[in-house]
Structure formats: structure tokens, C-alpha cells
């Protein structure tokens, strides 16, 4: 399995602050059968002003941990790129980071509550016009998407992929609405992949995927589980 949304790096955002915590996360993931993690730390100015070089440096620290501890897992470059009226200049300044820095798929997120100044669909279109494919992080967690369900169909029609969180699928998100919305997206076949969005080695947002693989297999068939957790993620992290 491949985790395309995980805050595995330390001291770059609101996730792990210590190498030991990132190491614990790596151990949980490796023991669970996760083979590759995309390190998708926040790029969210002014809170997290990470550059590609910052994330690359933090990635190398985590890769050194893997080697020193002989773990059977790989971590690649990525970012969770925050889109709003204040951050979109980064798109033109090469300030956002794509998966593997391959210039292909880009994980993006929005604010929980939408500012009137923000135009999410036009931001996605600008990213597509630049030649990237947006992967929308956890659409089930945005209140304004709950109120406008057709946005998800529209974004998929534009070519975006929808990444739903493991915790929402397993009904573990503290926001009940996110759990309900994830089920609705699964029932309507509007999900492209599932990832952990893990920030720590402890529950509920663990860096594990085997439990959600079993859940999807049971409720929607093994083919779907393979698609959400192996095949589409593989495509996202490919050159
Ligand atoms: Fe995240």
C-alpha cells in the first residue's frame, strides 16, 4: 500500500516535532504493510512557509532514520499545498511542490471555511492550466463542500482526483459530518484514493492503511480497495 498524504517529516509543520516521533510513525507504517509514504507537509503561508529545499532537507533526515533502523519503507518528496487568495502567487513562483517533484500530481487543500475572496474551482483550473493534476485532500472535511456537493463531480470532471482520509472512511473523524460525507462519496463512486493524513504515531490518525483496506474490501469489494490504496496512489507517485 502507498500513503499519498502523510505528515511524516519533523519540525516543518504541525505534525511530528522530533525524530523519535517520526521514527515511531515509520515503524507503525512499515509494520502495517505500507511500502511508500509521500511526505506531504504543509506549505501554508504565513503559518508554514516551507520551500522545496526545506522539505528536501527534512526528507533526507527521515530517509537517514529509515536507513539507520533498517526499515522496509520508502519516503518520497511531496507537500500539502494550501490554496487561497494569499497563497496562489506560489503557483507562478514555483513555490508549490508536486509528488516526487515530478511536476505531475499535486496535493492541494483548502480552508475549512471559505473566505468570500477565495475561488477554489478557479485555483484548481489554474493548476491544471500549468500542466499539473490536482489531488484534492479530504474533500469530505470542508463545510462549504458539504453545502455544494456538485463541486466534487465538477472537480473530477475537470480532471482532479479526490483523496479521502482513512479516519473519515472508518468513521473516526471527530467531525461527524466528514464521516457521513466520506460514506456518501464512496456510495456515489466519487473517491479516487484513500490516505492517512497522519500527524502522529497514535490514534486515531495513525499512519496505517491495512484496516481501511479491509473495510473497503468488505463493503465495496477488493478491487476498489486495491484501486484506492495501491493502483491510484502508485500512479500519483510515478514519474
Ligand atoms: Fe494533511
Provide a short characterization of the protein structure.
This protein has 239 residues and is of the alpha/beta class. The chain is built from ten helices and nine strands.
Q: Largest sheet at a glance?
A: 6 strands, parallel
When the domains are counted, the total is: 1
Strand content bin: 15-25%
CATH topology descriptor: TIM Barrel
Q: Name the ligand types.
A: fe (ii) ion
Give the H and E element order: EHEEHEEHEHEHHEHHEHH
CA-based shape: globular
How many DSSP E strands? 9
Poorly predicted runs are none
Tell me the span between the first and last alpha carbons: 18 Å
The CATH superfamily label reads Metal-dependent hydrolases
Which strand order does the major sheet show? 3-5-6-7-8-9
CATH class descriptor: Alpha Beta
How would you classify the helix and strand content by structural class?
alpha/beta
- Overall radius of gyration: 17 Å
By CATH, the architecture is named Alpha-Beta Barrel
Amount of helix: 40-55%
Mean pLDDT across the residues is 97
Q: Can you count the helices?
A: 10
Structure description:
The protein is an alpha/beta fold. Helix content is 42%, strand content 15%. It contains 10 helices and 9 strands. The strands form 2 sheets. The protein has a 6-stranded parallel sheet. Helix 1 (19-32) links the parallel strand 1 and strand 2. Helix 1 (19-32) packs across helix 2. The chain binds fe (ii) ion. The site of fe (ii) ion has 5 residues, from loops. It catalyses: O-phospho-L-tyrosyl-[protein] + H2O = L-tyrosyl-[protein] + phosphate. It is an enzyme of class 3 (hydrolase). Its EC number is 3.1.3.48.
